[in-house]
From TrEMBL, chain A:
InterPro entries: Ribosomal_Su5_D2-typ_SF, Ribosomal_uS9, Ribosomal_uS9_bac/plastid, Ribosomal_uS9_CS, Ribsml_uS5_D2-typ_fold_subgr. Keywords: Ribonucleoprotein, Ribosomal protein. SUPFAM superfamilies: Ribosomal protein S5 domain 2-like. GO terms for cellular component: ribosome. Pfam families: Ribosomal_S9. This is Small ribosomal subunit protein uS9m. Belongs to the universal ribosomal protein uS9 family.
UniProtKB/TrEMBL annotation, chain B:
This is Ribosomal protein S7 domain-containing protein. Transmembrane segments: none annotated. Residues 124-137 have a biased composition (Polar residues). It comes from the Eukaryota. Residues 50-59 have a biased composition (Basic and acidic residues). Residues 191-353 form the Small ribosomal subunit protein uS7 domain. PANTHER family: RIBOSOMAL PROTEIN S7. Keywords: Ribonucleoprotein, Ribosomal protein. It comes from Aspergillus keveii. Belongs to the universal ribosomal protein uS7 family. Residues 33-73, 108-158 are annotated as: Disordered.
TrEMBL record, chain C:
This is Small ribosomal subunit protein mS29. Keywords: Mitochondrion, Ribonucleoprotein, Ribosomal protein, Transit peptide. It is found in: Mitochondrion. The keyword Ribosomal protein applies. PANTHER family: MITOCHONDRIAL 28S RIBOSOMAL PROTEIN S29, SMALL RIBOSOMAL SUBUNIT PROTEIN MS29. Its main location: mitochondrion. It comes from the Eukaryota. Belongs to the mitochondrion-specific ribosomal protein mS29 family. InterPro entries: Ribosomal_mS29 (IPR019368).
Length: 322, 370, 505
């Protein structure tokens, strides 16, 4: 895999790179440009010798509908190439365009490696292209692992101090940003609707809850029933209204909730999360308190799935001798 | 951050207010109401009007800390430059000395022999007439008095005095309101801090939660909670324990007759009193032949409680009461009264621990060391 | 020392020996000759399950003896004696000596029960009355009496209304003889049974005669004796045991009132009822002699509802007091009972004369009100103890409420059962009560108890705090928070919240 190390490829290619670049359009699917170059020293002799020699690679095949490569117009050749070398060093890899990008980025990185960087958390947030998008963009089946490697270089370049980052690098990075840049602007803060209601959603275990919160005097309806009817356990009732309780607002709002799925604990705690989120729409200043009370923290735990060969999620069948 | 006003800051704020409000001296009530409206407008103005800025600056000058560099210079002056010869930082008192009058006021004997000038000064101070005014406001009014000189001037003085007074009242009120003013993003006053029990996940007393969860079987927490409530109600309604002097509860708790009124404290006291402070861990390698020797190991609070709860639950299984919660509750009361076998169990642990204490901290011998 | 024999020399020797040897009769060689190891193992196995000869291995049966699981020996105490569990379950504790004595606690009395200024405060039940209330089984085990110093009830709006009615019927001349008929409903723990208890307490204060059926289920659950009423009515059944129990309850609770009243009617069916004997003695005869219990009860009822003496017995007659009848758990009376008739069919609850008597009181009386001397009928439904099928009762109660609100039965707004639902026509029939001809007799109402108000909740919570059970600062915000947690002030839930402990105060 030594050829993957782009720097040695670059060095190798630079040694054979020539100032004369004669281009011809090859009707390839990827529309890549190949350049026919040859060492200038042997030009005069080889040109004479091979004037009338046709190389089969450049022959026009009348029989095939779509020619694999366009005809090289030898009339306009100032010199006959000794052999035709592609302009891209990654021409013979399976995913040449990908390696072109990678090489370009690595060159940029090598050039700008000495620039000061910021911690990755403070670097400008950008949404990079996802693998599927990138494949579609290039038209090549890029392996996931390779793309991840490329993204690592992108991350590193993005960490260059934003005030010092060269325009070239910025432009290169911009090519990898997902179209539309979803992270570019923060979502607008949610507002009360025209009737003064705030709506919040929450999930916990297998339950989900939607809460509508209006200013009022402490009435709570869950699925159209009172709190005591829905949650016979006092603990659950407290959980469900904890956001209002810890900020001593239980008598200042009316709650209308809809909970679905799961058991009572999950429903109560899903409602707690939904209620806290709805309350934050009314009063964003409560966030530190609610955070401290633990009601805005999402509990992402779910039941672990059962696996084949196991009795439960992790339990294995008992060992039996034969 | 709302402008924090207090009475000290008000003194500096008043002149600024007077400049704007004193000009139309029409009548007392009008002036007062005008100043009131101006003030109230200023108070709720969110666009940062000039008046507010002015008063804010005045307050900042009065209340804010000095610049960082000034403060650093001050600190270094105190800490370094004004050191005494022995290198201890000096205090202003050491540096500048105590006021003589202060010494004289403490020491009557010295006062008798003080110079005549000092004695005269002391007498003057005792007579009550100060050579300087302590009230800036009164001085200002007196200054303005001769300028008018008529009844008209008198009336205007009275009006001005009333106005200044109303201003001060306003400013105090404002300062008062500023403390209760809501932070942005709040509709109602909110608590500043939350106690630990106001967290959603730790709303119960740690011991209650530990006990409840140890009583839980098959993951049925609701049933365990019901049992816990029964136990607490039993502790609340059973007669106060007759404490056994041989098995005392931990000191520092309420006296026995008051225990049932606070069942959670009662329960905590019982558990903590019977909780062992060590555990005997059998360890190999101290004696030959691979025999294990119990070595005492200290326990943390939660571990101690766990051991005690486990013993109590085990002991309650042997009781012959109708239901589980009843058995546990009776066992708890038995522990409080020193009748329970849990105490013997703890004594046994301590006995074994005392036997093995010589080996605490020793390292077991490894077999193949040549 | 090289052996003189080589392997080649020995090989034919071995072969010959094998063929020459006679086949031994041991078990080993009975196995297949080509492979002996399995046979060895096979023979070495102990016989399974003690059966000799059944040594056939099952498919994939492990060839080693299975390890026996050690049985854990758990030392367990013997179970409690028979009946103790039930006794503890049914035990009613009314006092907790550890709780603090509440200062300035007022008792329920003639003055306090109509005083609207006291609304929302807890009133203690008078100590002498506790025996009467216990006799009529007014207290239930899970009503939370056991943590307070003495039993108290909160004076809520409904209680005050009831108190005013009791006051009017006894005191006001115009309202004398008034009757209210209510079916008390409401959410779980909303205080229905305690409402009945308050009514009983007021009845005792006002010297009414109180009849109670604390558990309607006991009359239909086939746990007491029953018999056909008579030859003429083979489809009606009498429950003498239950009737005797009712009489003894009534005698124990209303001793003072009944001992002041004398028999002043003719009772041809009851030979024991002699003119001039006190009603207490009359009821006692029924309580002691179960065979005559139903007849004695009828005689007693006739005496109590009499508006005047029979001819010739004027000297024994004194005006009769109003009657309070309470029934708890009405749902059980609105379906088939667990009793069986001679054809082994379930008997409908309305065919039990005891039940039928008390249900017939809900209908307006024909030539005089059903309770001519005034009184109250309070029948409470239950939300937790119901027979499996009470849909009919739900609809019937809605109809009662609609009729009371003035909706005509012919109008489309009148609640009707679902078209294809299974309903019981007898239930509709018994709860259908048109307006009475008598002005004093009220119409059947469905009273729904909801949550208490914030003020009442605050009074209740203050009572907890003053009893030393609740160690928190009670503020309006705190109370309204608990009010919400109690599902909108449901009083039973408030009680649970009040005694709950989360942290050491």
């Amino acid at each position: 895999m030594a050829w993957l190390t782009s720097s040695c490829v670059v060095q190798a290619m630079q040694s054979i790179r020539s100032p004369i670049a004669l281009r011809t359009l090859l009707p390839q699917r990827s529309a890549a440009h190949t350049t026919h170059t040859f060492p200038r020293a042997s030009l005069s002799t080889t040109l004479q010798q091979r004037k009338n020699v046709r190389t089969y690679a450049t022959e026009v095949h009348q029989s095939s509908e779509v020619p694999p490569a366009g005809e090289i117009d030898f009339e306009h050749f100032r010199a006959m190439p000794a052999r035709i070398v592609p302009v891209s060093p990654s021409y013979f890899s399976g995913i040449p365009k990908f390696y072109d990008h990678l090489l370009r980025l690595e060159r940029l990185l090598a050039l700008n490696a000495t620039l000061p960087t910021v911690p990755s958390g403070e670097a400008p947030r950008k949404a990079w292209m996802k693998i599927a998008q990138f494949r579609e963009h290039l038209g090549e089946e890029v392996p996931t692992k390779k793309y991840m490697g490329l993204l690592k270089v992108v991350y590193r370049l993005n960490c260059i101090d934003p005030s010092l980052i060269p325009e070239e690098v910025n432009a290169a990075l911009q090519e990898f940003v997902r179209p539309g840049n979803p992270l570019g602007e923060a979502p607008a803060p949610r507002q009360l609707d025209e009737l003064g209601r705030a709506r919040g959603k929450g999930k916990r275990k297998a339950s989900n809850a939607v809460v509508h919160l209006v200013e009022g005097e402490g009435e709570v309806l869950v699925n159209g029933r009172t709190l005591a009817e829905v949650f016979p356990r006092l603990h659950d009732r407290e959980s469900a209204t904890w956001a209002l309780r810890c900020s001593s607002r239980l008598d200042k709002y009316n709650v209308f909730a809809r909970v679905r799925g799961g058991g009572t604990t999950g429903q109560a705690e899903a409602m707690a999360l939904a209620l806290a989120r709805a309350l934050l729409i009314h009063e964003p200043g409560l966030k530190p308190i609610l955070r401290k009370a633990g009601v805005v923290t999402v509990d992402p735990r779910r039941v672990e799935r059962k696996k084949p060969g196991h009795v439960k999620a992790r339990k294995m069948p008992a060992w039996v001798k034969r | 951050m709302p402008p924090l006003l207090n009475l000290f800051a008000a003194r500096t704020a008043v002149p600024a207010l007077r400049v704007s409000a004193a000009a139309p001296r029409v009548s007392l009530s009008a002036a007062a109401s005008k100043s009131h409206s101006a003030l109230s407008q200023r108070r709720w103005n969110s666009s940062g009007s000039d008046g507010k800025k002015e008063s804010e600056e005045a307050q900042r000058a009065a209340t804010s800390m000095p610049h960082v560099s000034e403060e650093a210079a001050e600190v270094s002056r105190i800490m370094d430059k004004e050191k005494r010869c022995d290198g201890v930082p000096s205090t202003p008192e050491l540096q500048q000395g105590t006021m003589v009058s202060e010494i004289l006021s403490r020491d009557k004997e010295a006062a008798k022999h003080a110079p005549k000038v000092f004695q005269d000064q002391i007498k003057k101070a005792q007579s009550g007439s100060r050579s300087f005014s302590t009230s800036a406001r009164r001085g200002q009014l007196e200054e303005q008095k001769p300028s008018g000189g008529d009844a008209n001037a008198d009336a205007s003085d009275a009006a001005q005095a009333a106005m200044v007074q109303s201003m001060i009242a306003q400013v105090t009120e404002q300062a008062h309101a500023a403390q209760h003013e809501l932070a942005p993003g709040l509709k109602f006053p909110a608590p500043e801090t939350l106690p630990r029990t106001e967290n959603y996940r730790s709303r119960y007393e740690p011991l209650l939660e530990q006990f409840t969860k140890m009583m839980m079987r098959d993951g049925k927490l609701g049933i365990a909670e019901k049992n816990m409530n029964f136990i607490l109600d039993h502790l609340r309604s059973s007669p106060p324990p007759n404490l056994n002097p041989r098995r005392p509860l931990l000191p520092g708790g309420p006296p026995a007759p008051q225990l049932p009124l606070n069942p959670v404290k009662y329960l905590t006291l019982i558990i903590d009193s019977v909780a062992p402070i060590i555990k005997n861990k059998p360890m190999k390698g101290f004696t030959g032949g691979g025999a294990s020797v119990p070595i005492p190991v200290p326990l943390a609070e939660r571990q101690r409680r766990r051991a005690a709860i486990k013993w109590i639950l085990d002991a309650s299984d042997k009781r012959r009461d109708t239901k589980f919660a009843q058995r546990v509750a009776n066992e708890l009361v038995a522990v409080a009264e020193g009748r329970s076998g849990v105490w013997d169990r703890r004594d046994l642990v301590y006995k074994v621990g005392i036997q093995g204490r010589a080996l605490v901290g020793a390292k077991p011998r490894t077999r193949s060391r040549i | 020392m090289v052996s003189p024999f080589c392997w080649g020399c020995l090989t034919p020797l071995r072969q010959t020996s094998r063929t020459i040897l006679p086949s031994p009769s041991t078990a080993v060689s009975r196995g297949p000759a080509f492979h002996t190891s399995a046979a060895l193992q096979f023979m070495g196995r102990p016989s399974q399950g003690g059966k000799k000869g059944s040594t056939v291995l099952k498919f994939r049966q492990p060839a080693v003896a299975a390890m026996k699981k050690k049985k854990k020996f758990v030392e367990k105490a013997r179970p409690p004696p028979v009946g103790e569990r039930k006794a503890i379950r049914k035990r009613i504790v009314l006092s907790n000596p550890n709780a603090l004595e509440v200062e300035g606690l007022q008792e329920l009395s003639e003055e306090t029960m109509v005083d609207s200024r006291l609304r929302g405060t807890a009133l203690a039940l008078p100590v002498p009355m506790l025996d009467q209330l216990r006799a009529v089984q007014a207290f239930k085990p899970k009503q939370g009496w056991s943590i307070f110093r003495r039993p108290c009830t909160v004076l809520r709006r409904e209680t005050l209304e009831l108190g005013r009615f009791f006051d009017n019927v006894t005191g006001d001349v115009e309202r004398r003889g008034a009757v209210i008929k209510k079916i008390v409903g409401g959410a779980r723990k909303s205080g229905k049974s305690v409402h009945l208890l308050q009514a009983m307490a007021m009845g005792f204060i006002k010297k009414w005669v109180v009849f109670t059926i604390p558990e309607a289920q006991e009359l239909v659950s086939a746990t007491s004796s029953y018999a056909p009423l008579s030859e003429e009515n083979p489809n009606l059944y009498v429950q003498n045991e239950a009737t005797a129990a009712l009489l003894s309850r009534t005698v124990a609770a209303n001793k003072d009132v009944l001992s002041g009243l004398r028999v002043s009617q003719n009772h041809p069916t009851v030979p024991a009822a002699k003119p001039g004997m006190t009603l207490e003695d009359l009821a006692k005869t029924g309580a002691q002699d179960q065979a005559s219990a139903w007849a004695v009860f009828q005689a007693l009822w006739k005496e109590l509802t009499a508006t005047g003496p029979a001819p010739g017995l004027e000297k024994h007659y004194t005006p009769r007091p109003p009657i309070l009848v309470t029934v708890d758990g009405l749902g059980h009376w609105m379906t088939e009972s667990q009793y069986r008739n001679a054809q082994f069919k379930l008997i409908h609850a309305h065919d039990l004369v005891f039940v039928r008597h008390f249900l017939s009181l809900l209908k307006p009386g024909q030539d005089q009100p059903s309770l001519p001397n005034g009184g109250a009928l309070l029948y409470a439904t239950s939300t937790t103890n119901n027979p499996p099928y009470v849909y009919t009762l739900d609809v019937a109660l809605k109809q009662v409420a609609a009729r009371d609100a003035g909706v005509e039965p012919s109008s489309p707004q009148f609640p009707q059962p679902e078209p294809y639902s299974k309903t019981d026509p007898r239930v509709f029939e018994v709860l259908e009560s048109p307006k009475s001809k008598h002005a004093q007799e009220g119409r059947l109402q469905h009273q729904i108890l909801g949550g208490v108000t914030h003020d009442e909740a605050r009074g209740f919570m203050e009572y907890f705090a003053r009893s030393g059970l609740l160690q928190e600062t009670i503020s309006d915000g705190w109370v309204s928070e608990k009010w919400t947690l109690a599902g909108g002030g449901v009083i039973g839930e408030l009680e649970r919240i009040g005694k709950r402990l989360r942290v050491a105060a």
